[in-house]
Specification:
Largest sheet: 7 strands, parallel
Number of domains: 1
Bound molecules: zinc ion
Number of strands: 11
Strand content: 15-25%
CATH architecture: Alpha-Beta Barrel
Strand order of the largest sheet: 1-2-3-4-7-8-9
Distance between the termini: 5 Å
Helix content: 25-40%
Order of helices and strands: EHEHEHEEEHHEHHEHHEHEE
Number of helices: 10
Shape: globular
CATH topology: TIM Barrel
Length: 282
């Protein structure tokens, strides 16, 4: 089993510990590679995003750790960048000019108005109560409408590009799955999701198998039901814990690898000495 993780948070954003604590835990589990991907700055402040002014220090701290642990573990610098609109996403010069090893792009927000302010955002991965309220208020109480909007934004994100890894690609099912009328195996959902996967494959992007909620909620992003489609489309995958706590760095990895093997996957994509390579699943 590959011991690596490329999606992680630390106290530069909403992670609960210093970057070095994550590295120490990864080392204690004999990890080969560890990547940081704090929530990138947004055009507005939230409690979970890094502030733009902290970005230079974040990059410096990762550099310091790379040097300190260079003979023990490969450490990489990344960011998890929100796709908000065609004007604010991973492809803009602000993010492209940063000296990063990789970029993850994710959707946490669906803007409901042109002005990019926190109050104009529908949060898809906050509390269920908040999600339910948003579906009723902005999407006529119709789960299909918000799911459709989520995948439209996701497709736009992939079209805009500027990143390497699609973050938690179907996280809409975390809250959506509890809302009446949601069915990830129904034709209407399948059509939207498979169309999205086909576009990801066309653009040659990697998809993460996100284990953040696998043990606590028995939820995987993507839903295991769709693993065979991802395999058929030959989309490269990697397993990430999206951890916010050092002791959860390795959470759900073993279980995800079992699911991948059972689905027929033979490789994961890994950063090896700074280059993405396919590594055999063992
Ligand atoms: Zn995320
Ligand atoms: Zn994350």
């Amino acid at each position: 089993m590959q011991l690596s993780n490329y999606h992680s948070h630390c106290d530069f954003c909403d992670g609960r510990s210093k970057p070095e604590d994550f590295v120490k835990f990864a080392l204690s589990k004999n990890f080969r590679a560890y990547g940081f991907s704090s929530h990138a700055p947004l055009p507005f402040e939230t409690f979970w995003n890094m502030s733009g002014c902290d970005l230079p220090e974040y990059l410096e701290e990762i550099k310091r750790l790379q040097k300190k642990y260079q003979h023990k573990i490969e450490i990489y610098s990344g960011l998890e960048i929100d796709f908000l609109t065609k004007e604010y996403n991973a492809s803009i010069p602000y993010f492209q000019e940063l000296p990063l090893d990789y970029r993850i792009s994710s959707i946490h927000f669906l803007p409901i108005s042109e002005e990019l302010k926190e109050e104009n955002m529908v949060t898809i991965d906050g509390s269920y109560k908040e999600f339910e309220k948003s579906v009723k208020h902005y999407f006529e109480g119709d789960i299909r409408k918000i799911v459709k909007r989520f995948y439209l934004s996701s497709m736009e994100m992939v079209e805009c590009g500027g990143f390497d890894i699609v973050g938690h690609l179907d996280k809409i099912h975390m809250n959506g799955g509890k809302y009446p009328g949601f069915d990830a195996e129904a034709f209407w959902y399948k059509k939207l999701f498979i169309e999205y996967l086909v576009l990801i494959a066309e653009k040659g992007l990697m998809v993460e198998i996100n284990t953040k909620n696998l043990l606590p909620k028995k939820e995987l992003y993507p839903l295991p039901f769709y693993l065979p489609v991802i395999l058929d489309l030959k989309i490269p995958i990697l397993v990430n814990s999206d951890t916010h706590y050092p002791d959860l760095v390795n959470d759900g990895r073993q279980e995800a690898f079992e699911l991948l093997k059972n689905a027929g996957f033979k490789f994961t994509r890994e950063l090896m000495n700074g280059k993405w390579e396919d590594c055999a699943l063992t």
